[in-house]
Amino acid sequence: MDSFSSPSSGSSPKLSTDDIMEQLRTQLAQAYAEEFLETVRGKCFEKCITKPGSSLSGSESSCISRCIDRYIEATGIIGKALFSQR
Amino acid sequence: MDSSSIDNYQLQQLLNQEKQKAMLNEMVGKLTSACWDKCITGTPGSKFSSSETTCLTHCAQRYMDLSMLVMRRLQQ
Fold first, then answer.
1. The complex's ipTM?
2. 8 Å CB contact of A24 and B46
3. Which end of chain A is more exposed for a tag (fewer CB within 10 A), N or C?
4. Cβ contacts (< 8 Å) between A40 and chain B: which residues?
5. H helices within chain A, ranges in order?
6. Phi (first) and psi of residue B45, to 5 degrees
7. Residues of chain B positioned with their CB less than 8 A from the CB of A70
8. Is the dihedral of CA A59, A61, A62, A63 positive or negative?
9. Torsion on CA atoms B47, A38, B27, B15, rounded to nearest 10
10. Rounded mean pLDDT of B19-25?
11. Residue A51, by phi and psi: left (phi above 0), alpha (psi -120 to 50) or beta?
12. Do the beta carbons of residue B31 and residue B64 sit within 8 Å?
């Protein structure tokens, strides 16, 4: 029961339950964001960079920004279809 | 209980909550990826066409049907 709260060294400040919960939430949110970013990167690379040139063209970068917006929208549509029906 | 000690019950509750959230999150993520590949065939436009939107919705709903069928079939 006490393993979390027993101080490992005298100088480190004690963490309260709220601190630990806050840290957990932050780290989870970071992990979600990273995973999402990685997916979007892969999807939009596939869609928009079909023939990698010597630099990113204007049409490629506008494709990427549209792709990101659409992927976020698609996530919303899927979520709604799964949870707000029946 | 004083405020500086760790409330295991509260932590356990948070972890259970987050576990559920993670499962739902993962499901939405996986489905979005699969349905994106099926439904968004061209380059992404500035707006989804209505057929793309419909396809995404149907894709998610059919997946639910499928997972029910698979469960029922495997329970026999």
1. 0.84
2. no
3. C
4. none
5. 17-48, 58-83
6. -90, -175
7. 40, 44-45, 48
8. positive
9. -130
10. 93
11. beta
12. no
